Amino acid sequence: MKTKVLFFVSTLESGGPTNVIYNIIKYLDRTLVEPMILTLSPEPARSRKGDFEALGVTVYQFDQSRISWIISGGRTLKQYIAKIEPHIIHSHSLRPDVFAAKHLKGHIRISTLHANLKDNYINTYSRPIGDYFAYTQIKHVNHLEKVVACSKSVYEVYKDKVDSIDFIPNGVDTAIFRPLSPGAITQRRSELNLPSNKKIFISVGSLCTRKDPHTLIKGFLNSEQADNSVLLLLGTGALEEELRNTYTSENIIFKGYIRDVVNYFEVSDFFLSASWSEGLPNTVIEALACGLPVCLSEIAAHHEILSINTDAGTTFRCGDHEGLSKSINALMKKEYSSLRKAAVNIIEQELSAKKMSASYQKLYLSMYNQ
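Given the sequence above, the corresponding structure tokens read:
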């Protein structure tokens, strides 16, 4: 009999956690595991629901407002779960974790922590709301049978706060994210209206304080490479208008939200991140899988990635745009083919979607059999 795993989420909005779930499901052995998805709220415009359905996954939707959930969510959830009859419930994010802990006792329940929750929530909601959300989520996941951190660095944050915690590093789908041949790069740059005679630096993510785009842009502009390079910024966020008005150099290109970021990774030369906090950033490992050397801020998640192969990039202190400039300059002096080889090696060794999915599948089967 197959082990039925229900992935329990708020929505399937495109982003890091949803991408992780997609990669887990894509590489599960369907002769052993039957995945399903349950969402709590109506899908946003940037939903990956269709991508999951294309994998043959049934997506159950409540489509209820948060107020409705407060009034009758627990009772409704129990009734719904009784009809689906999953063997394992794998929750992701605050509301699913809370509902799983409070209303789904008697089931095998697993949660994945996708980030340092306190940093994430404070950046989004500020204090004291961010502190409260982080405290609430950790309090409730302690009632679940298993908690999985998305990286060793996140595990280290919570190992003394969560009883049954382990870690499975995020992984990237190498069937999609992979290096492009030089000839194909030239053609793709032309299709994307990008310069063929300049180095392309790329950064992907929300334009928010936690990602620190000001340091990113200043560091790039002050580097020795700025005149002969462009910086692509993919993403939107609270700082977007301010950034567009502040940095008007023709070498800074704001692309806004891009669904298929792989097209831009494939034609770029280097990846930059000035983030102050990450779980195990999908954008970094996607860039590495495409063969991009990286220049990263000195946070635990970035050190964790580069510790697999230190030849894949350089680092700089958070918030230090001068340090970023020096780090870019140092990166450019290294032999590029060796950098690309080291970047891909990190993914092949430790951070592929296949390896991540196999680890989760082993956990599902082990817990169900027990």
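Residues 66-84 form the longest helix (19 residues). Try to locate this feature in the token string yourself.
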